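A further point concerns the way the authors explain their paired sequence and structure data. Each protein is reduced to its one-letter sequence and a matching series of backbone shape codes. An entry of this sort, consisting of the sequence and the corresponding backbone structure tokens, reads as follows:
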Amino acid sequence: MKDYTNPYQTPSAQPSPGADSTAALAGRWQRLAGAIIDGLISLAIIGPMLYFSGAWANMMETGTLDLVGTLTWFIIGEVVFLAVQGYLLFNRQQTIGKWLLNMKIIGVEKDDVPAGKLYGMRYLLMHVLSQIPIINLVMIIDPLLIFRKDKRCLHDLLAGTRVIEAPQS
């Protein structure tokens, strides 16, 4: 006798509870150190570009950049960010700082976070908001939210992510 299964029957398997709920959250100081590493890497690349292009001298002379200069350097900054961090970010859900300090970004609902959401909500949106006067002052809330029990910053809440200690590979 053939074992018959109804193809229209509701699956009996229960859905998983979401992203690796057993993984330890990355520590606050560990995340801060990772962000500092990532910032220093960007500064080491963008700083000389600003200096040798004359944009730094122009900013020191006038005290500001015009709108075109601001937009240009914003775009250059995003391109540099993606060139430097993109491979690890999109393939391993880590930045260089997170990789060096053994951390990983995962989704709240499932481990893998789509690339557009990972970059767009965690990084690009925050970079754009930091360029807008007044709102950039409110951006201090983003890192302060790490003191919540779930250690999720504003960018984590917006992207539906959390940062965990990466399993040793």
About this structure: The helical segments are 28-53, 55-62, 67-92, 96-100, 115-129, 135-138, 141-144, 154-159.
